[in-house]
Structure formats: structure tokens, C-alpha cells
Design a protein that fits this description.
83% helix; 13 helices; mainly alpha
């Protein structure tokens, strides 16, 4: 099973790497190549969100381990955490953004790599975080001003925060951080080396290519939907049926569609009301990043609690 997961993900990384190069070539040939933020939103609300749409299934598994019968508690807890995140972002946008970037770095680094690491140590957990910071650092490094503008559109107006970003950019600390993330990739790649670990470097170069050629929003959308989300979905499909991938995919779609559609509808309704106050593109950015933050925290907490309690029950 483990070798099958590694092989599928290596093939996925290779295909994604090729597509990144093809797309970058298109942008090089076509001047002023752009993609509407609305397209990015629709991709995230469909492909992106779907990889977390089986959280209710994982919630049932967790509640079964904990011996809790009332599953209504799960939905209330999940939704409450999401709402609290949104409220905190409105009240304390700078702190919320920084905390979200830290948590997202760890989440991306771990989810994209842990299938390659059989026995995880505390050092591996730290390496996952440092590796995942590349997703955050690359757009800031290649498109500093544009990324700053996105942060400002996310209600972050703290001058100290932007002074700090300017400081790390002008003093090459940002570059050193990217190099540190590169070293984390190398360590994870070389630890208990096997050919299938080349997916780490394929992903690394894909992320750099995306952020060099594309805007921060488009680069993140392509990464989040077509690398991170599909990789996570592959693991869910294999959990549903490790012998027949086509059957596992059908089961996954059947289980994922209800919550994916519900989430998309709620986000589009929110977009309609936010657009009354802000312009359309600004409203989309708020839905994408603040909305993702509100879904990411309960999603990560669920993953952590399930992993912890499964180990204790075995």
C-alpha cells in the first residue's frame, strides 16, 4: 500500500512539473497573460475544497474512537471554529494572517511529504514546517509588492507588519529563508533515500516555476488545487478502495460532492454580500484566503486529533 501511494504521487509530481513548465512557456510566449480571479475562486471552490469534504467521514471515525454518539456535536464544533476564525480575522487581521501563514506552512509541508516518511520524529515535523514555508515565501520573494497588496486587501493595515516584511526583504533575510526551506527539502529527500522521493524535488521546482512566472494568486491556486488538493484526494481515494482506483474515485466523488457544493454555495453567497462594500476582485481575495483560513483550522485540528487518537487506540 505504501509503495503504491509513493508511486502514484511520484507520477503525479512528474505530471504536475511538466504542466508547470508548459504553462510557464505559454506565459513567456503570450504577453500580459492573465487569468481572472473568479476562475481561481471557482477552481478552489471545486477541486481545492473537495479534498477536505470528507472531514465528516473522518469526524465519524474520531467520534467512534472517542465513544461519542451524538455526531451533531461534530458539525457544531467544526462550524463554530470556522466562524471564530473569521471573527478573529476581522478583529485582529495582522495576528490572524501571521498565525494562518505559520499553520499553513506546516500543513502544506506535512501533507505534501508525510507519505514518504514512514517513521516521523520531532525533527521531521520541524522539517515539514520549514519545507512548507516555501509556499509562503516564494510569492513574497518573486512578487513582493503584489503580495503586499494582497495582504492589504485582506484587511491587514498594520504598518509594523509591513516594515518587518520590508526589513527581511531588503536585508536578504527572505532569500536566506528560501535557502533554509531548500535545505529542508534536501534533508527530507536524502533521509532513507529511495527513487520515489524525487517527488520532493519535482514539487520544489514546480513551486518555484509557478511563483516566478505567475501572479501570487494564480500560482497559489494552481499549487493548492492541482498539487496539494489532488495529492490529499489521492490518499482519500486509496483509503476508500486501495485495489480499484476507479471505484475508489467514484466513492470519493459521491462522498465529497455534498459538502463541496454546500461550501461553494455559502462562499458565493458571502461573495455577493462582501461585493456590496468592496470591489469584485477584492471580494474574491477575501473569500479565498479568509475563507480558506476558516476551513483550514478545523480541518488541521481534526487531522491532528484523529491521528493522535488512532495511535493511542492501536
Amino acid at each position: 500500500m505504501e509503495n503504491k501511494v509513493k508511486k502514484i504521487n511520484l507520477n503525479h509530481s512528474f505530471i504536475f512539473f511538466l504542466l508547470c513548465n508548459i504553462f510557464s512557456l505559454i506565459t513567456f510566449i503570450i504577453n500580459n497573460f492573465t487569468v481572472s480571479p473568479l476562475i481561481c475562486l471557482l477552481l478552489i471552490l471545486s477541486i481545492g475544497v473537495s479534498h477536505g469534504s470528507l472531514d465528516n467521514v473522518k469526524g465519524k471515525k474520531l467520534f467512534k474512537i472517542l465513544g461519542i454518539d451524538n455526531f451533531f456535536i461534530f458539525y457544531i464544533s467544526y462550524i463554530s471554529i470556522a466562524i471564530v476564525v473569521i471573527i478573529l480575522w476581522i478583529i485582529l487581521p495582522s495576528i490572524s494572517l501571521v498565525f494562518f501563514l505559520i499553520v499553513a506552512s506546516y500543513h502544506f509541508g506535512k501533507e505534501d511529504t508525510q507519505f514518504l516518511i514512514i517513521k516521523k520524529s520531532y525533527l521531521d515535523e520541524l522539517l515539514f514546517f520549514i519545507k512548507g514555508t516555501l509556499i509562503i515565501l516564494a510569492p513574497i520573494y518573486f512578487h513582493f509588492e503584489e503580495t503586499i497588496n494582497i495582504f492589504k486587501l485582506l484587511l491587514v493595515d498594520n504598518e509594523n507588519f509591513y516594515n518587518f516584511l520590508n526589513y527581511i526583504e531588503t536585508n536578504k533575510i527572505l532569500l536566506l529563508s528560501v535557502i533554509l526551506s531548500t535545505l529542508a527539502h534536501i534533508i527530507l529527500f536524502s533521509k532513507n533515500f529511495e527513487i520515489k522521493k524525487f517527488s520532493i524535488f519535482l514539487d520544489y521546482f514546480s513551486i518555484l516555476i509557478l511563483n516566478y512566472f505567475f501572479s501570487p494568486l494564480l500560482a497559489f491556486t494552481i499549487y493548492f488545487c492541482f498539487l496539494h488538493s489532488i495529492r490529499h484526494s489521492i490518499s482519500l481515494i486509496l483509503e476508500l478502495d486501495s485495489y480499484d482506483l476507479s471505484l475508489g474515485f467514484k466513492k470519493f466523488m459521491k462522498k465529497a460532492l455534498p459538502l463541496t457544493i454546500l461550501t461553494a454555495i455559502l462562499c458565493l453567497i458571502a461573495l455577493y454580500f462582501i461585493n456590496i462594500t468592496y470591489n469584485f476582485d477584492s471580494s474574491i481575495l477575501k473569500i479565498i484566503f479568509i475563507g480558506l483560513a476558516s476551513l483550514t483550522f478545523p480541518h488541521i485540528l481534526l487531522e491532528y486529533l484523529l491521528e493522535k487518537n488512532e495511535k493511542q487506540s492501536n
